[in-house]
Write a structure and sequence with these properties.
161 residues; mainly beta; Immunoglobulin-like; 2 domains; four-stranded antiparallel β-sheet; 2 helices
């Protein structure tokens, strides 16, 4: 039960009827939807497309590299694509799974499918040829070597002749 439904509607206004008769209807409809959707994951917004299924991702950094770890349960190397362009690393994936159970009294078919895309900005100067990626047991690891730090050089100024 929702806490809002326990509070009387006219509490602050006394016993007087609401000024707008549609406001009480709106409150009741909101309460109905709140009660209905309790316990369910949030419904995806329309038009969100591929971003609805974002995997959990960790990014860690050491002195020599950046390591990206993404949880991709049920995916294999053929299902994942990694691209680098303009210092942007993009991880794409698509899952298509079907499970079927047959018994004497029933038949169950479950389908799970969807795609995702995550993009991360890499530091300037990354050698894209040295990026490595591997996937094992639904965990993707991408290792990006960090670029060498920029070195400053002092330039002597000479008098013009």
């Amino acid at each position: 039960m929702n806490l809002k439904s326990l509070i009387p509607v006219g509490r602050d206004r006394g016993i007087a009827a609401p000024a707008n008769p549609f406001m009480s209807l709106q409150r009741e409809i909101d309460r109905l939807f709140d009660d209905f959707t309790r316990g369910f994951p949030a419904f995806p917004s329309f038009g969100a497309g591929k971003s609805e299924l974002l995997p959990s991702m960790d990014v860690t950094e050491t002195d020599k590299q950046i390591e990206i770890t993404a949880e991709l349960p049920g995916l294999e190397e053929k299902d994942v694509q990694i691209n680098v362009a303009d210092n942007l690393l993009t991880i794409r994936g698509e899952k298509n799974a079907e499970k079927e159970e047959k018994d004497k009294n029933y038949r169950l078919v479950e389908r799970s499918y969807g795609s995702f895309e995550r993009t991360l900005e890499l530091p300037d100067g990354v050698n894209t040829d040295a990026i490595q990626a591997s996937i094992a047991k639904g965990v993707l690891k991408v290792t990006v070597p960090k670029p060498a730090p920029a070195q400053s050089k002092k330039i002597d100024v000479k008098a013009a002749a």
